[in-house]
Amino acid sequence: MAVCIAVIAKENYPLYIRSVPTQNELKFHYTVHTSLDVVEEKISAVGKSLGDQRELYLGLLYPTEDYKVYGYVTNSKVKFVIVVDSSNTSLRDNEIRSMFRKLHNSFTDVMCNPFHTPGNPIQSKAFDEVVSGMLAQST
Amino acid sequence: MDSAEEKPAAVIYAMENKPIVTCAGDQALFTSLYTSLAQQLPREPMEWRRTYGRAPKMIHLEANFVQFKEELLPKDGTKALLTFPFLHIYWTDCCDSEAYRSSVKEDVSRWQSSLRSHGSADWLIIVVDGGDARKKNKSNILPRSSIVDKIRGDFCNKQNDRCVVLSDPLKDSSRSQESWNSLLLKLRTLLLMSFTKNLGRFEDDMRTLREKRTQPGWSFCEYFMVQEELAFVFEMLQQFEDALVQYDELDALFTQYVLNFGAGDAAKWLGSFCSPVLNWSGLLLRRPIDMEKRNAIQRGSASLLDMRSYLFSRQCTLLIFLQRPWEVTHRALELLHNCVQELRLLEVPVLEGALDCWVFLSCLEVLHRIESCCDRAQLAANSSHTVGLWAYATDKLKSLGQLCGLVSRTGPTSEDLNRTVDLLAGLGDERPETASSLQSPYKKLKEALSSVEAFERHYLELCQAAMEMYRAIGRLRSARLLGKSLAEYYMSKGEPEQAEALLAEALRSYVCEGWSFPVTHTRKQMGECQKLLGRSVDSLQTSALLAGDTNLTTEERTRFCGDVLNYAGEPVEQGGAASAKASLDMGAFARLTRIRFRPDGATVHSGAALQVELTLRCLMPAAVRADELAVGIHLDAEHASKGGAQGRGLPGTVDFEAAVSPAGRPASLSAGPPPEMDEAHDRSPSDDSLSSAGVVCKNAHLVIRRHDSGSPQDAPRTPRGHAAPIGAAPATPVALKEGARMLTGRRIALEPGDNSVVLTAPSDEPGTYTLRQLSVTLGNVNFVLPHIYPSVQYHVYSQEPQLTVQPLAEPLLAGLPQTVKFTLLTGHYAVRKGDALQLSNSDGMPVLANAGCTARISNSGAAVSESALSVQSSDKVTSISLPPAPPYHALEFHLEVLCLIPSGPERTADERLTNGEVRHRPRSYSHPDTAMSAIDQKMSIDCPWSIYSTLLTLTFHIPFKTEHSLLSAGNRKFIRVCVHNVSDSDFTLAHVKLAEKNGPRQDGRRRASLEMRSLNATAEQLLCSKRSVHCLWEATCKEDLPSSLECVFSASFCPRRPRHAAAFQLFHYNFLLDKVPTLYSVRANMLPLAGERHCRSGSLCGLEVVIARLAEPAEGQPDVDGGGTDADGLGGSKVLYEVADSSSNWAVCGRSSGLVSMPSSGSWAHKVHIEVMPLFAGHLPFPKIKVLKYLPHNVNTIQPDADSQVENDSLSLLDKTLDDATADTASVRSRGSVQSLGEQQHRGVALPRLDPFSPGQVFNHSHARQVLVLPANDDHIVEVHAT
C-alpha cells in the first residue's frame, strides 16, 4: 500500500520514518520533510475555521508525479505522513483513513509504554510490525 | 435569425448557441414581434424541475428563433441535440373566418402533419390580435375568440393551452402587457417541458449506450460524442455545472478503462490510445472547443494525450465560466501527474523527454490561462494554488535541460543536440492563437532548448518565481528543497559560489529540524561545494562532521576522516594559507559526555593532587591520535575564601546532557538547558546571621532566553546570497586563550566511542577553577569546544592553621588535674622541627608537665604517625615542642592542667603575663545549669605561624560549696563548717582543719591563746555527690573571746574513684566571724498565782525575766552608736525588752515591753515581772522574749532626759491604752504598741532606734522552755488541739 510511513514530532523532527524501497530512502525523507509545509498550512487553516472540532485526517497533502502524500495530525500535533505510489490507484480515501487510524492506535500504544520517553525516536517492535503490515501489502 | 440560416454543427461554440425554436406561419408578423420576444423571453427565470431527483434549477431561457423548414426537423437516428428544435411555433394574426378557412387552416394542418411525421409534439400556435388588422377588413370581422376557438377546435385536440392569444402586442397597454406575460410564461413552460422530455429521452438513450460498453465494438469515442452533446446542451442552457458533470463522468469512465487496462482488462477501443505519442504540443486552453482534437476523437484517431487535453480544455473552460480558476490549477496538476502515470501504465512508447515537454508546456499554458482571467492581486493571493504548477514546470525544465546537455559545464554534445531536435519536432507548429504572443509556452520552450544561456535564463526565472511563491505562502521547506535543486544545478554548471548559500540555507533548516538523512546528503553536497570554493576550514569542518555521521557507510566515513587526518598531517609550510592551523568545532569530532574529579568532592586544599577524568565520545570511524588535549581553565581567586574546606559540595561528576539526549532529537529543539538551581543565603554583614534564604537559578539568562521557535517560519530569512557560509554556521570556534591556564595531555589515542582521559589539574593557588574550553589538537587541526556547559568547577582552598583546646571530659573540675585536648589543624602551614607552642602560665592554672605525652598526626581522620612531645615548664611559660607535621594535617595531644580553687577574697596586684597580656583574673561565677560555680581560665598561646597570640578560655567548675555558722551555749562558742559537694563525683575528705587566719590583724596582735578544739572525726570522710559534711569546732580562749574572728577552713580531698591515681588536694575556705562574745543572758521563769502549784489557763501568772550582762562590748567594736552612748557617760546603754507571743498561747497583761538602762560597766542584772495569762492548758512554750538594743535618736540635739521621759511617757501612755482596751488580745496590743510607736515616730522629729543584737550576743537560757498549764477550774469547754 504505502511506500513510506513517517511519524513526525510536534517540533517537526522525525520520530519514525520507514520506506519500502530502501534505495529511495533519502528521497522519501525529502518528500516527507517538504510535506510538513502543507501539514502546517492545513493545521493553521483548520485551526482558524473550526477550533478544536477538527478532523485529524488532513487528506492528500500534495501529489507528485510518482507519489501521493497523505497527512494526519494528532491532537498533540504529532504528524503522520503516508506516501503512496501514484500508480497504486486502487487505494481509496477510506483506506488511507483506516491506515492512519491504525497507525494512530499503534502510536498511542507506544506512547503508553512507560519505558518510552516521549520525544524519543520510536523503537517499538509492535509499531514496526504495524508499519510493516501497511508497507508490505503493496508488494 | 442570421444564425438560423447557417447550417449548424460546423462551427459550434455552445455559448453562442441557443435552443432552436422554429417559426412557421406569418413570417411578417413574427418579424415584427421578434425583437421584443427575444428580449423578453430571458427576462424572468423559470424553475426547471428535473428528473432523477436532481435539484430543481432556476434558469433564464433564451431561444434562437428560426424560420420553420422541413429539413430542420431531426431525422430518425440522429442524436444531435444542439441542432434539435425544441419548440415549433405557428404565428397567425388571422381574424377573418374566411381567410382562416381558405388558407390558414390548411397551412396549419400541413405544418402539423410535418411535425407529426417527425414525432415532434412540442408546438404552439400564437394568434396575434392586432388592432390594425381588424381595421382593414371590417366587414368580415368576427369576434377574435371565434377564430381562436376554431383553431382550438381544429388542432388543439384537448390541448387548449397550445393556442395562445397575443393581444395588441405593439401597444403599450396593460392589456398588451398582460397578454405578453402570459405568452412568455407559456413559451417558457413549453420550452422547459420540451427540454425535460427531449433531454430525458436523450439521457436515456445515452445511458443505454453506456450500458452496452461491455459489448464488443463499443467505442468510447462514439459515446464520448453523445455525452458531450448533452454537455453542450447544458452549456447552451448555461448549466455549466451540469455540463462539467458530463465531462467529469467521461473523465472518470476513461480513467477507469485505463486502470482496467492496467489490471489486464483491455478494452479494444483503447488500442487507439496506446499508439506512440507523436505530438507533445501541450494543452490548448485558449479555444473554447478544440475542434482539431474533437474531430480526432470523433474519427477515433486521437492519442491519449489528445483525449486528455481535449477533456481538460473543456473542463477548464467550464470551470472558468464557473469562476473557479483555482480548481483548474489543481485539476491541471492532477491531470499532468495522471497522464504521466497513464502513459506509463499503458506502456505507450514515448520519446524520452517528450512528456517533460508536454508537461512543461501544459503547466505554462494553464498558468497563462489563469493569468488571463485573473488580475495580479488575485494571482498573488492565490499563489498557493499555482505554485505547484510553477514548481512542476521548473522541475520538468531542469530534467529537460539535463537531457539535452544544457546543464553540464561543457554544453550539449551532438547527441544532445539530436535529441533536442527530435523533441522540438514533436512540438509541431505554434498554434495560431499564440503566434502573436512573445511569451507563449511554445516559444519559451523552444528558446530554452535552443541554447545554454537561454535555458539558464528561463530556468532561473522559473525557479526564482517558484521559490518566491513558496516563500510568500510560507512553504519554506519546499522553497529550500527547490533551492537545493537550484544549487545542484549550479554545482553541475560548476558555479559553487551560487550554490553555497542555497545549500547552507537548506542544511540549516534540516539541522534545525533534526532530519538526519537530508542533513547528511546536503552536507555531502556542501562539502563538495566548499572544496570547489577552496574553503579549506569549512570543508574540513564538513568532512569532520561527515566522518562522524552514522548515516554514511564506514567506507565513506573513513574517507572523510582521512581528509581531516591528511590535512592535519600536512607539515605546516612557511605560512602557507593552505595548511594553516584550522580551528574546528568540537561537535564534529567528539562529544564531551562526562567530567569527573578525583577526589570526588572537586574540592582540595592547595597543593593537593586533583585529577580530572574526561569522557570523550569520539565520533570518528577510526582511532585517532590526538597530539594534545587541553582544557582551558579560568581561576577565580575571589571565591577562594568563600569555598573553604567545607565549602558547598561541588558535584564531583558532571554529565553533559547534550550527549545523553537521544540522537533523534535535534539539539536546537531540546527545550533549552535545564535550569541550574541553587540555594542562596543572604547574611547580614555585621553578625553573619541569616536574613533571608531562597532559591536562585544560576543560568537564568540561558533558560529564559527566547528560543527560536523551531519552526523554520521563524528562522531568520537571510536574503539569498547573503547567508553566512555554512562552515561557520555553528558559531566560529573560539581558539583557546593564549597564556591561560590549561590542563593538558599529550599523545592521546582516541578510539571510536567513549574514551577516558585523565588530566592532572593544577591546585597550587587557592580559588575556584572553572573549566572553560576543551580543545583537541590533531596536527594542524584544532577541535575546540568553545564553552563547556553546564559549567564545571573545582575549588582549591587554603586554610590558616587553627589551634583549639577542648576539655577531654565535661565539666572540668577545679582543684583537680584535668586533661585537655589540644588540636592543631596545620592548614597551609608545615610544622617544622623546633616549632613550639608557648603557653603563658597563669597562677590559677598551672600546666602539669608530664613526660609520656604523645602527639598524634592524622590526615582527614586517618592516623599518620605518632611522636613524643616534649613539654617544658618554667615559671612563666610552658613550651610545647611540636613534632614536624605536613600541611593540612591534624595534630592532637593531651595536656593536664590544674585549676586552683580560689580560697578567699584576696586580691593581688595586677601583673602582666610574660607575654605582655594583661593577666585575666579568673572569674568565678555561678553556673546556671549546675549548682557549681565556674571559673573561666584564659590561656594565651604563642604559635610559631602567627605573631598574634591565640587566646583560649577554659571553664572550670568548683566542686564544693562551703558554709559556716557560729553557735553559742552561754559563753561557749562553737564554729560549724558545712562542706557541700555539688559536683557529680564522690570525694574523700581528710585533714579537716580550722585555724585562725594568720594574716595581719587590725590591732596587730596575735591571740596565741585562742584555741580551736576539734569535735570532728579524725578519719577520712566520704563526701558523696550532692551530699554535705558538717564539721564543728569549739573556740576557746584564755582571755575574752575576740569580738571578730578570721578563720581558715582547710581540708584535703581527692576523688574517690580512681583512688590510686589521685593525690589529696588541699581546699581552703576563708571566712570571718563577727560579734563573737555573748553580751547578755536572758532567763525567764513562770510564777503561778500564789497558792497554786501550776499555772492555770485563764488565770494570770507572772513571768519573771532576768536580763544579765555577761560581758561588755569589746572596745573598738564596730558598734558606733553604742560607742557614742558610752562616750556620753549617761548611764550606759539601754536595752529594750519585749514579751510577745506569736502563737496566741499567752495573753500578755500589762506592760509587755520596757526599757532597761544599765550601767556602763560591770556585771549587772535586771529583773522584770510581767503578767501573762495562758489561754490554753497543756505544756506551753514560754512567750518569746526579745531583747533589742535601744539607741537614742540623736545624742547631740535632744536632751537625753527629755528623751527618756518622752520614752517613758510614751510607754506609760501605751500601757494606758492597753488597760483601756479590756478584751483585746495580746497580738492586738502588740500591734497597737507598734502603731503608737509609729505614730510617735511620725510626730517626733528625731526618733530613737531599735537594733537587734546579732545571734551570738544574747543567749536566752529559757529558750524553748515549757511550762505546764492546768485547765481552768470550770472546764465546760474542752479544747482539743490536733496539730
TrEMBL record, chain A:
Transmembrane segments: none
Domain of life: Eukaryota
Keywords annotated in UniProt: ER-Golgi transport, Transport
Primary residence: cytoplasm
GO BP annotations listed: endoplasmic reticulum to Golgi vesicle-mediated transport
Subcellular location: Cytoplasm, Perinuclear region
SUPFAM superfamilies: SNARE-like (SSF64356)
Family note: Belongs to the TRAPP small subunits family. Sedlin subfamily.
Protein name: Trafficking protein particle complex subunit 2-like protein
Organism: Hippocampus comes
From TrEMBL, chain B:
Region (Disordered): 663-692, 704-733
Protein name: Trafficking protein particle complex subunit 10
InterPro entries on file: Ig_TRAPPC10, TRAPPC10/Trs130, TRAPPC10/Trs130_C, TRAPPC10/Trs130_N
Lineage start: Eukaryota, Metazoa, Chordata, Craniata, Vertebrata
Sequence ranges assigned to domain TRAPPC10 Ig-like in this UniProt record: 802-957
Keywords, ordered alphabetically: Golgi apparatus, Transport
Single GO biological process annotation from the record: intra-Golgi vesicle-mediated transport
Protein species of origin: Hippocampus comes (Tiger tail seahorse)
Residue ranges annotated for the TRAPPC10/Trs130 C-terminal domain, each copy included: 1043-1270
Domain TRAPPC10/Trs130 N-terminal: 16-328
Classification via Pfam families: Ig_TRAPPC10 (PF23604), TRAPPC10 (PF12584), TRAPPC10_1st (PF23036)
GO cellular component terms attached to this protein's record: cytosol; TRAPPII protein complex
